[in-house]
Amino acid sequence: MTYTCIDISDALPIIENNAAIVDIRDLVSFQTSHMANAISLTNDNVQNFIDSAEKSQPIIVCCYHGNSSKGAAEYLATQGFKEVYSLNGGFSQWSAMFPEQCETGQ
Ligand SMILES: O=S(=O)([O-])[S-]
């Protein structure tokens, strides 16, 4: 299995299609602001996420600028997720384009 790189504008219909959004940035950055409904994925919770997630649900991986999300997306694809996307431009571009689609906190 592999993953697909998508642009910010491609993400909206995928999100509407019930995708999970996982954010792999550091926790302080995540808490400051993240994509609406994103969950923070860290080394500490990634295994639990993999074990409990529905593998057929689409997953969008978000990082800072869209580079490190590729490695994480590839990894998740090897763990059985069927539809994995890496978000080009990452949170920096998402927050610039869709500031109203961001939220703070956990
Ligand atoms: O998160 S990043 O690798 O795009 S700087």
Key phrases:
alpha/beta; 106 residues; binds thiosulfate; two-stranded antiparallel ribbon; five-stranded parallel sheet
Quick gist of this model?
With 106 residues, the protein is an alpha/beta fold. It has helices at residues 8-16, 27-32, 46-52, 68-78, 90-97, and strands at 3-6, 20-23, 34-35, 39-40, 59-62, 84-87, 102-103.
Q: What does this protein look like?
A:
Its EC number is 2.8.1.1. This is Thiosulfate sulfurtransferase. The protein has one domain: 3-Layer(aba) Sandwich (Oxidized Rhodanese, domain 1), CATH 3.40.250.10. It has 106 residues and is α/β, with parallel strands linked by helices. Strands 1-6-5-2-4 form a 5-stranded parallel beta sheet. The chain has a two-stranded antiparallel ribbon with strand order 3-7. It has helices at residues 8-16, 27-32, 46-52, 68-78, 90-97; strands at residues 3-6, 20-23, 34-35, 39-40, 59-62, 84-87, 102-103. Thiosulfate is lined by residues 63-68, 90.
- Please provide the count of β strands: 7
Query: Which percent range describes the beta-strand content?
Result: 15-25%
- Indicate the mean pLDDT: 97
* Count of helical stretches: 5
What is the element string, with H for helices and E for strands? EHEHEEHEHEHE
Q: What small molecules does this complex bind?
A: thiosulfate
